[in-house]
From TrEMBL:
Xref: Gene3D superfamilies: Enolase-like C-terminal domain, Enolase-like, N-terminal domain
Species this protein is from: Alkaliphilus peptidifermentans DSM 18978
UniProt: substrate binding residues: 24, 135, 160, 295, 297, 320, 322
Cofactors: Mg(2+)
GO biological process: peptide metabolic process
Residues annotated to bind Mg(2+): 190, 218, 243
Database matches in PANTHER family: O-SUCCINYLBENZOATE SYNTHASE, O-SUCCINYLBENZOATE SYNTHASE-RELATED
Start and end residues of each Mandelate racemase/muconate lactonizing enzyme C-terminal domain: 141-239
GO terms of molecular function: magnesium ion binding; racemase and epimerase activity, acting on amino acids and derivatives
Keywords: Isomerase, Magnesium, Metal-binding
Family statement drawn from the similarity comment of this UniProt entry: Belongs to the mandelate racemase/muconate lactonizing enzyme family.
This protein's name: Dipeptide epimerase
Length: 364
């Protein structure tokens, strides 16, 4: 099964409501899609999200990385020697994790097709069904209460609340949400780097004292501030999850050696796809640290790949794969079945897509 072509296209999907974090506001998913074609007529699909404020990857940079650096390395290689293909892909250029992720995902789709098995089974086959949280954007407290109640009405049992805009207001937000939804629903929070270390310690202790029962806090401080992250981890009881601080297996190793966080958030757009995400799973297993699998603003294509990984690995115990649930439409047939909080993995080979619209690849 030889790679004969790699095509790049675009997918655009309006969100149900604007997505707001401490870092950005977005109204629609505007991602890059990739199609890897083989001499046997098989096609693998991938996707990249240009989340410049987190990964540094813009739309133009992703397209350039794939067309100028990745594609020339891969044409003619055989999926049968998958290790060689992965080495060439991940060695083709530095950084550019989102562009690498799109191609890596498409190649894993082909790897599954080559071996005629769903990817999650080839990677471990731990479970066929996973349960995701849903994200509540940072807004005025009343609006966040309304959005939280809507999410609970849709059946979600875990909400990930975006904070990090203003510590005093964040406290108000969390008190209002907890009061409205009660204690049967789990609350995790994501500050997206919005607090300073001492500010984070202060607000998290207040949340503990107020009995808000926060499952964990995601990325309270700046991504590069490993010492600040450790200071927070050492000084609060709420577990700390490293998100923007961990892109590569090397980052994961450093964070875990320092004991700077209690949990790690794996996202394919940060790791450059499944190949390196698997290494982070092994590192985390070695340290006995559980992982979350997360996503950026991604549609069903790349979130299906993340769901296959989550279904394969027991160390992934927390799921934040709500990209498709935030979308107003789903233009892709097949892949994982997203039924609100329940994600069911497909039994078809590879990632299991049935139809990815050809229009995505008409680049006029
Ligand atoms: C969408 C997901 N639940 C999420 O919150 N992902 C990121 C932010 C993604 C973005 O800004 O596109 C996260 O910080 O966990
Ligand atoms: Mg996060």
């Amino acid at each position: 099964m030889k790679i004969v072509d790699i095509q790049v296209g675009r997918i655009s999907v309006p969100l149900r409501t604007p997505f707001k974090t401490a870092l950005r506001t977005v109204k629609s998913i505007e991602d890059i899609v990739v199609k890897v074609v083989t001499d046997t007529g098989h096609v693998g699909y991938g996707e990249a999200a240009p989340t410049a404020v987190i990964t540094g990857d813009t739309t133009g940079a992703i397209i350039g990385a794939i067309n100028e650096s990745i594609k020339p390395q891969l044409i003619g290689l055989s999926i049968n020697n998958f290790e060689d293909v992965m080495q060439r892909l991940h060695g083709s250029l530095l950084k550019n994790s989102s562009g690498k992720a799109a191609v890596d995902i498409a190649l894993y789709d082909l790897f599954g097709q080559l071996h005629n098995a769903p990817l999650y089974k080839l990677l471990g086959g731990y479970k066929k069904e996973i349960i995701t949280d849903i994200t509540i954007s940072v807004n005025e407290p009343e609006e966040m209460v309304k959005d939280s109640l809507d999410a609970v009405g849709r059946g979600y049992k875990t909400l990930k609340i975006k904070v990090g805009k203003d510590p005093l207001k964040d406290m108000e937000r969390m008190k209002a949400i907890r009061k409205a939804i009660g204690y049967d629903i789990q609350l995790r929070i994501d500050a997206n780097q919005g607090w300073k270390p001492k500010e984070a310690i202060n607000i998290l202790r207040k949340m503990e004292d107020a009995g808000l029962e926060i499952e964990f806090v995601e990325q309270p401080v700046l991504a590069h501030d490993f010492e600040g992250l450790k200071l927070v981890t050492d000084n609060v009881s709420i577990p700390v999850l490293a998100d923007e601080s961990v892109f590569s297996p090397r980052d994961a190793l450093k964070i875990l050696e320092m004991r700077a966080a209690d949990l790690i958030n794996i996202k394919l757009m940060k790791t450059g796809g499944i190949y390196n995400a698997l290494k982070i799973c092994s590192i985390a297993e070695t340290y006995g640290v559980e992982c979350m699998i997360g996503c950026m603003l991604e549609s069903k294509i790349s979130v299906t790949a993340a769901a296959h990984l989550a279904g394969a690995k027991s160390i992934i115990t927390k799921i934040d794969l709500d990209g498709p649930a935030l979308c107003s439409i789903d233009p892709v047939e097949g892949g994982a079945n997203f039924e609100e909080y329940k994600i069911i993995l497909p039994e078809a080979s590879g990632l299991g897509f049935v139809r990815v619209p050809e229009e995505f690849f008409n680049n006029d």
